[in-house]
Amino acid sequence: MNAIELQGIRVDMGRKSILKGIDLTIEQGDFMTFLGPSGCGKTTLLRTIAGLQKADGGTIVLHGQEVANGETAYHMDPAKRGLSLVFQSYALWPHMSVYENVAFGLQVRRQSRTEIREKVTAALEKVRIADLAERYPGELSGGQQQRVAIARAIVTEPQVLLLDEPLSNLDARLRVEMRAELKRLHRELGATIIYVTHDQQEALTLSTRIAVFFEGEIVQLDRPQVLYRRPATLQVADFFGSGGMDTNHMGAELIAADGGRVYLSSPVCSFPLEGITLTETMPVILTIKPEHIQLHRSFVPHAVPSVVEAVFPAGAETLVKLMTDGSELSARVLGDAEYSCGETVYMTLNPEYMNIYNRDSGRLLTDIRPVMPIREMVRA
Amino acid sequence: MSSKSLSPISLKRNRSRLWNQVTGWLRNPVNLIGTIGLLFLTYTIIWPVVEILIATFVWKQQDMRITAAANPGHFTFYHWQRVLASDISSSLFYKPILHASAVALCVSVISMVLGCGLAWLVTRTDLPFKKGITFLAVIPYLLPSWVIAQAWLTFFKNEKIGGTPGILQSLTHISTPDWLAYGFVPIVASLSIHDSVYFFLLVGAALSSMNSQLEEAASMSGAGRFRILRRIVFPLMLPAILSGFILTFTRAISSYGVPAILGTPVDFYMISTMLYSSMRARLTTEAHVLSLMLMLISMLMIYMNHRIVGRQRSFVTVTGKDSHKTVMPLGRLRRPLAGITVMLMTLVSVVPLLILLLQTFMLREGVYTADNWTLHYWIGGSVSGINSGEKGVLHNPIFLLALRNSLWIAAISSVIAAVVGLILGYVAARGKQTWIGRMVDQVSFFPYLIPGISLSAIYITMFAKPHFIVPALYGTVWLIILITVVKELPFTVKAGSASVMQIGGELEESAQVSGASWWTRFRRILLPLNRKSLLSAFLLVFIGAMKETELIIMLVTPRTETLTTLTFEYVEKGYTQLTNVVLMIMIAIVILVYYLATRYGKADLTTGIGGQ
């Protein structure tokens, strides 16, 4: 059975439409991530699923039971939905100790004292802070508070666990550590997790599936690997390209040659394509990630000469900015490669990793493939 | 589906949609509590005012005695005309309002200068003895405003109204001039001393929450000290200063106790004292017209405040971080300034109390000989020659009744007001986006615009007879409790909503997701986290109720006598020493409660005083 089914979820705030009809099915045991820039509606959707926000349209079905219906204005109380939510701010009650914070949900459910003690201890052990039970939230570090918030959420054994940007308030090192923790918890609990974040790397690392949000709509829903390789629109590609993963853009054209063959023509490369028929020239945008550009010190077949503009060493990898025929490209090289500005290098681009987008609609041209093996990769 | 043909199925759907909408709306605590709160506020605030307004346009039975034109039950402008444009309107309305406005304006200006100056000295300079000065500054607030008037009279009284002359005349044998003993000057002086504490607390709180890096930044940009004060500090303090101004103005213009003691003997009437005597003279409808005029003035003041301050109000924000503070060194002036401040503060807050205390031990006023000392007024029995045989206070059953009533009223109404304030404040804070939240916020502010004496004039009429399910409350302490709670709502709701606002909504939401009902959330999350604010509101109302005069003087009956009304009765009868004994006991209680609440409960008076 599907854990969560959303159909046509709409949420308006005043005149502004926050969510414009979300359809989404989440399977039992999924680690689903809502990814998008701030203000795209991902947190609103999470709150709508939790029941803290009313849906103005659409239905939500949790484990086969309808919990919200915008058309009949039906809205089930959050408490009855059998899910837990970890807030971005953790929302730990400052006047209660860690133990009391975690025990609260069980006390509300009127469980026996011994049962509560067992469960709280188990939850605290699961997040590895059993020794902090008597402390107060004010006495804990950010990472420890985070663990308390998670313990509080899992202690009631919810079938669905909602996490709202839980790592965004942590420093970089802790964030990486907590990612591993979350992955382990997902495996151990076997619960369905919905995770909201604006961090692409977090999303790629943790999720089994990712829904990318823009302006109240899901623009792409895929496995992380697919999302990484084939962003459905330029917007998604750019969003994934930000934060040190800049995607290279190039203006290019699809040219219909004699014999029905279609060629891609760009400033840095051109090759034949299959899976498309054309009658006239079509303007497109070509993208390739910096890690899919190889640099060579000397000329190799099909290589394009370019000039080094700037070098950004970052320890394990080095980002090299290049200039080729008036277009600027970035290449990512493993290790602390030494390049100097003004130096000429030769780059090869693997067409396998290139994506071609319609320039006007910004959509990925999905069926196009380079003709394999590439025989005629030539300079334009 | 076409919109015209409604099939049975769609009808059923529609009904369940409506049902779901209504239950969903009511399940939101903000809406449910807001609705109940709004009903309460409408019944206790809006409706009485409307009823009174209508009553002023209707002929009364007793008008038949005055004019033949009276037609009971029918519409008329007679009462308004009588107050505003008749041969008695000069003495009934214009003179009192002129006096009241002049007094209120002078009091506000003087309080502003004193209060702001003191606040600046205490928060922004390296003045020594800050704690002591702050405590001295708060003392006048803990007393009924007319205690200072009483002390003034004890000191400056002359033979004009009979009785023993004041200390000054007894010592110097020079007759105190009338202008110094009664009327405008002493009224302004007494009220200013009492009301400057509002400025002190409001502006002091605003000054200390202002980050001094703002000043330093201006100083780095090359601004001089005066320019910084004018361009940075003053605009930031403007909302607090204006709030203080409005607060003191509306309080002063409607104050009753002080003008009753210092003005009435020489026929210096203010609106409030005129209202009281109109009420006593059975000119009820005319009294209501006066009430409405007084309310109108208060509303105009508030409206002007909003126009001037506008959205700047949001300037005074409290951030979670403790802002960095640098104080200005006073240099050579440090010690002299401290000396002068402490001396002045002692003069206005401690000396009056000492004078009054001293008097309680004197058998006859103004006679400073050893054989005149006595404890008669504290513990004596009935002696026919003294005060018509009124017993010493501690043996007087009337005093014991008044003490019990006072404590009972103050305790009950402060607990109710604090809790109601927190609950309505919750609605106002959490429902900021909804009409119901905004309505609760605004309507609960309304009693602020109704002067206490007007409100009680309205309540007498309203609760004299049973109403719906509400029994006739007149003559019971419950009426006094109700009016105290209602009158303090603007402060308690403001304090409550400010405090709820500081508690992130997520703290509550996470409890909600855990399955806690609203009551559980309120009890286990909101109440403990708002403890401090709740206690402050309790303290504020308790002190307010203990010293309340204006609000209840018309409502008490012999059975519901309180300490303040008892003292006021003694004042009117000229039992000076007995008055002072009761006052001393009352003040002792207030100071004790204040001390306990601030010491053990970490209560803070400033949180509620804002009113804005």
Brief account:
Chain A is α+β, with helices and mostly antiparallel strands and 380 residues long.
Textual characterization of the structure:
The complex is a heterodimer of chains A (380) and B (612). With 380 residues, chain A is α+β, with helices and mostly antiparallel strands. Chain A has two domains: 2-231, 3-Layer(aba) Sandwich (Rossmann fold), CATH 3.40.50.300; 248-370, Beta Barrel (OB fold (Dihydrolipoamide Acetyltransferase, E2P)). In chain A, 23% of the residues lie in helices and 36% in strands. Chain A has helices at 42-50, 98-108, 113-126, 142-154, 172-189, 200-206, 224-229, 234-241, and strands spanning 2-13, 16-27, 31-35, 57-62, 65-69, 74-75, 83-86, 160-164, 192-197, 209-214, 217-222, 248-256, 262-265, 270-274, 282-288, 293-296, 304-313, 317-324, 327-334, 344-349, 355-358, 369-370. Chain A has a six-stranded mixed sheet, with helices on both faces. In chain A, a hairpin with a 4-residue loop joins strand 13 and strand 14. In chain A, helix 2 (98-108) crosses helix 3 and helix 3 packs across helix 4. Mean pLDDT of chain A is 87; it is low at 375-380. Chain B is mainly alpha-helical. Chain B folds into two domains: 83-318, MetI-like (MetI-like fold), CATH 1.10.3720; 386-612, MetI-like fold, CATH 1.10.3720.10. Chain B contains 27 helices and no strands. Chain B is globular and about 85 Å long. Mean pLDDT of chain B is 82; it is low at 1-6, 312-323 and 607-612. At the A-B interface, strand 6, strand 7 and helix 2 of A face helix 1, helix 22 and helix 23 of B.
